[in-house]
Amino acid sequence: MSIEICNESGVTVDEPAISSVARFALDAMRVNPLAELSVMLVETDVMAELHQRWMDLPGPTDVMSFPMDELDASRRPDSLDDPESILGDIVLCPDFVREQAKTAGHGLDDELHLLTVHGVLHLLGYDHAEPDQEREMFGLQNELLERWRKVRADEDERERRHRADSHVLGTAGFEEPGGTVQS
Fold first, then answer.
1. Which of 42, 57, 105, 142 could form a disulfide with 46 if both were Cys (CB 3.0 to 4.6 A apart)?
2. Contact criterion met (CB below 8 Å) for 172 and 183
3. What are the beta bridge partners of residue 65?
4. How big, in percent rounded to 5, are the helix, strand and coil portions of the chain?
5. How many angstroms separate the CA atoms of 36 and 88, rounded?
6. Gyration radius of the chain over CA positions
């Protein structure tokens, strides 16, 4: 699966984590591993222009999704039998999201992870216009995000244990170019 991150927002974000949560959501939704996804992070004025142009709504927003391939029964990106497909673009606005994250009581990265999953689900045809659709989409979004966080915490714990074991065993050093060992 190809996930391209393009940060033109001027805000430093954890791009590998955004890619990781997108990949996790796509894998969990059984999207073809040959699918391509683009995640763009843009400035507030760019997001406001996109929001006005595509949604006919003024001002910036947190996330927008732009599907590229039609999601119909004959060609779905979640079918492993289909050829490579381009899912589309997710556009995030970190400056706008920063205030939203403060209001929600968590950090910018956490909010960007949530919105990345939200954008993936929109690309896969989920919506939240009706109450039953909102319950389904937000329930799935929260489940995917919780599962990703658990997997990530488990990986972090394994890495912490590995570093601790290496330190105890005296193998904590690494070899730098030129053959010198640093610890």
1. 42
2. yes
3. 90
4. 50, 15, 35
5. 7
6. 19
Q: What is the mean pLDDT of residues 155-168?
A: 80
Q: How far is CA 19 from CA 16, 84, 99, 124, 166, in A?
A: 5, 19, 22, 17, 29
Residue 74 has pLDDT above 70, yes or no: no
**Highest mean pLDDT pick, 52-56, 166-170, 172-176:** 52-56
pLDDT tens, 104-149? 999 999 999 999 999 999 999 999 999 999 999 999 999 999 999 9
Beta bridge partners of residue 4, listed in sequence order: 38
88: which strand partners?
37, 67
The whole-angstrom separation of Cα 27 and Cα 148 is 11
Q: How many CB atoms lie within 10 A of CB 61?
A: 19
Asked if 93 and 9 count as a contact pair (C-beta separation under 8 A), the reply is yes
* 137 dihedral zone (left: phi>0; alpha: psi -120 to 50; beta): alpha
How many angstroms separate the CA atoms of 137 and 64, rounded?
15
* Rounded Cα–Cα distance for residues 11 and 167 (Å): 35
- Name all domains of the chain by residue range, CATH numbers in brackets: 2-159 (3.40.390.30)
Q: Kindly state the DSSP code that residue 33 receives in the 8-state scheme.
A: T
